[in-house]
From TrEMBL, chain A:
This is Ring-1,2-phenylacetyl-CoA epoxidase subunit PaaB. It comes from the Bacteria. The lineage of its organism: Bacteria, Pseudomonadati, Pseudomonadota, Alphaproteobacteria, Rhodobacterales. NCBIfam families: PA_CoA_Oxy2. It comes from Sulfitobacter brevis. Residues 1-20 are annotated as: Disordered. It holds the Pfam family PaaB.
Automatic annotation (TrEMBL), chain B:
This is Ring-1,2-phenylacetyl-CoA epoxidase subunit PaaA. It holds the Pfam family PaaA_PaaC. PANTHER family: 1,2-PHENYLACETYL-COA EPOXIDASE, SUBUNIT A, PHENYLACETIC ACID DEGRADATION PROTEIN PAA. InterPro entries: Aromatic_CoA_ox/epox, Ferritin-like, Ferritin-like_SF, PaaA, PaaA_PaaC.
Length: 114, 330
């Protein structure tokens, strides 16, 4: 996902952020659903003035080779995301709960497929 | 390559012992084949280096549309025209995937565009050569896209997640580009005498500039050493150039065309071709802005930017008007 979270790009490398910002189209994240009934999947991002244009641009940029049958676009600034620092508290509790996986249980062969 | 002479920190590669804990964890993750994602901690040098590299790569895709766009109206058949249009459209898409990857590093596409337009950021030297005949469309696809693929395929494994994912998409499409170029070359090389000559002429003009795409030998470069440690560069320039020559020489033979290098020879022992180096003075001169088409290319991009300004602004104004009307209605 395109969320410029790191420190700002400094002036040594770029023109100062000034006038262009006002006229820069906002960033949209693009999600495409493929042909075979799978969920929408994040494929990338693009700039567009509004939602309608975001869909049109997404069609041109991300579905030139029949990659999808449905497009979602959402303003990048509207996405809430977990932060990498939370990795431990969010995901570690799942590590010691192996019984959540079916392979935890031994089913005798004579029972057959289950 | 599409990104040439990218500068890194210039300070040489630190050993793990010399690093602060944060940086060591970062490097160990890369060493273990892990991916770095936008919100993860990263050294400032890594971020800047990537912005320069991805930005230059993106600019190359965009400027690279110009030499081919030159032939869209003059393609020999409707089918060739449709194919070339699709190819040039792909290049715009490739530029966009890459700008988006760069934007995850905290730079905006307009920042990068401005730096291209002012000449501060570069694009690949190859696009400063003119496309004089239809056979050049063949040579560009076969040689230029072929050389780009050499670099882009390994970059699918690069350490920065968004860059790697952009490369996966690009590589899928790039293969079509190279094949369509080779298809044009086959047609021309097996055509009339005049067509065959045209194909040979295109090869003559594009051979050495294609070898230059990989950049000069960087076996000793501190910048490349750092980029390789960070896995944002996967092979040395010489390795990729050798691979390109090894792959391309037999293809030229198949076409019945002669690579313009008298010294080109297969070394039976190593299985690799020996070949002549391109003229590196010419390369540096082109990078400085003195190639045959540098001025024309930058002028074309500046013109597009300036003349598109009212469209960009108009659409923003329209979107704002619609939004405020909708809010008023609610």
């Amino acid at each position: 996902m395109s969320s410029p979270e790191s420190s700002p790009y400094n002036e040594d490398d770029a023109s100062p952020h000034g006038e262009t910002r006002k006229t820069e189209w906002p960033l949209w994240e693009v999600f495409i659903r493929g042909q075979h009934g799978l969920s929408h999947r994040h494929v990338g991002s693009l700039h567009a003035a509004d939602a309608e244009m975001a869909i049109k641009n997404a069609r041109d940029v991300y579905t030139r080779r029949n990659e999808g049958v449905s497009i979602w676009t959402v303003r990048a600034s509207d996405i809430a995301a977990s932060s990498p620092e939370e990795k431990g508290s969010l995901y570690e509790p799942a590590n010691d709960k192996v019984y959540r996986h079916p392979t935890f249980f031994d089913i005798p062969d004579e029972v057959g497929a289950m | 390559m599409y990104a040439q002479m990218i500068k890194s920190t210039g300070q040489g590669v630190k050993s793990l012992d010399e690093m602060e804990p944060e940086e060591r964890a970062f490097q160990e993750r890369i060493d273990a084949g892990g991916k770095i994602e936008p919100k993860d901690w990263m050294p400032e040098g890594y971020r800047k280096n990537l912005i320069r590299q991805i930005g230059q790569h993106a600019h190359s895709e965009i400027v690279g549309q110009l030499p081919e766009g030159n032939w869209i109206t003059r393609a020999p058949t409707l089918e060739r025209k449709a194919i070339l249009l699709a190819k040039v459209q792909d290049e715009a898409g490739h530029g966009l995937y890459l700008y988006c990857a760069a934007e995850t590093l905290g730079v905006t596409r307009d920042d990068l565009t401005r730096d291209l337009l002012s000449g501060k950021m570069k694009y690949s030297s190859i696009f400063n050569y003119p496309t004089l005949t239809w056979a050049d469309m063949g040579a560009v696809g076969w040689l230029v896209d072929g050389a780009a693929i050499m670099n882009q395929v390994p970059l699918q494994r690069t350490s920065y997640g968004p860059y790697a994912r952009a490369m996966v998409r690009i590589c899928k499409e790039e293969s079509f580009h190279q094949r369509q170029g080779f298809d044009i070359m086959m047609k021309m090389a097996n055509g009339t005498e005049a067509q065959h000559k045209m194909a040979q002429d295109a090869l003559n003009r594009f051979w050495f500039p294609s070898l230059m795409m990989f950049g000069p030998s960087d076996a000793e470069s501190v910048h490349s050493a750092q980029s390789m440690a960070w896995k944002i560069k996967m092979n040395t320039n010489d390795e990729l150039r050798q691979k390109f020559v090894d792959q391309t020489a037999p293809q030229a033979a198949y076409l019945g065309l002669t690579i313009p290098d008298d010294t080109l020879k297969l070394n039976e022992e190593t299985g690799h071709y020996t070949f002549a180096e391109p003229d590196w003075e010419e390369f540096f001169d082109v990078l400085k802005g003195n190639g045959p088409c540098n001025t024309e290319r930058l002028e074309a991009r500046n013109k597009a930017w300036d003349e598109g300004r009212w469209v960009r602004e108009g659409l923003i104004a329209h979107a704002e008007k619609k939004r405020s009307r909708k809010m008023a209605a609610e």
